[in-house]
Amino acid sequence: MMSREPLAEAGSVPRAIRTPRAAALAGIAFSVLFIVALVLIRTAVPADRNAPGELLTDSSQREAVLFALGLVPFAGIAFLWFVGVLRDRVGEAEDRFFATAFLGSGLLFVGVLFVASAVAAGFIASAGEHGDGLLASGSWGVGHRIINELINVYAMRMAAVFTLATSTILARTRLAPRWLVASGYAVAALLLLAVDLLPWIALVFPAWVLVLSLYVLINSFTRRRVVDPGERPGS
């Protein structure tokens, strides 16, 4: 029994060092991938569902959108990793109510985002051969509306709940400064109330995750070094 205690203590040292950095790197990866994908899609796909622009005639435009959609699964994987490691970082200090909202909204955000990306990829891929038919039958307009509803109404609203729950958890556990918590509440309000009016507002969510991740990463390097109780000062 006595021989296992030093092993447990020694094992907690690298875990305490690696956990915040893993969360930060996952959050940075999600933010970069999601911002790149969202910018490529927003700039290539017109806001007017009745005017597809060059997507029906320009194969390079379609390839750019498909490339952006191909980044979404990797962004989702990084986001799930970010959620898991951040929840592990909070540990036993988390509140069950906000922990449920935090985890549930994060999972729903990724799920809805994947569905919207799959629908969009199907329409874009078939636009090269059946572009005129999609536009004439009204299928393009219906698909455009469905994708917008999935992203702006559902995915980004879940992102707002996630940001709200995360900010509250960070405030209660004091794992982040007040300015970062306050900015999270502001981002959640924008996503809940204004994302329908200004679709580009969706970028504030990955931007906030990026700032949070950078803070966690910098804080993990600048905090006091954890020393093994059995380690000699000169070693």
Commentary on this structure:
With 235 residues, this protein is mainly α. It has one domain. 79% of the residues lie in helices and 0% in strands. The chain has 6 helices and no strands. The longest helix has 42 residues. The two termini are 28 Å apart. The N terminus and C terminus are likely disordered.
Give the tags.
mainly alpha; 235 residues; 6 helices; disordered C terminus
Q: Concise description?
A:
The chain has 235 residues and is mostly helical.
Order of helices and strands: HHHHHH
- Give the overall silhouette: elongated
Strand fraction:
under 5%
Question: Between the first and last Cα atoms, what is the distance in angstroms?
Answer: 28 Å
Total number of β-strand segments?
0
Helical proportion?
Answer: over 70%
Tally of helical runs: 6
Structural class: mainly alpha
Q: For the CA atoms, what is the radius of gyration?
A: 22 Å
Low-confidence stretches: 1-17, 224-235
Number of spatially distinct domains: 1
Average pLDDT works out at 78
Largest sheet: none
Give the SSE map:
Layout lengths: L3 H41 L14 H32 L5 H42 L1 H35 L4 H16 L10 H19 L13
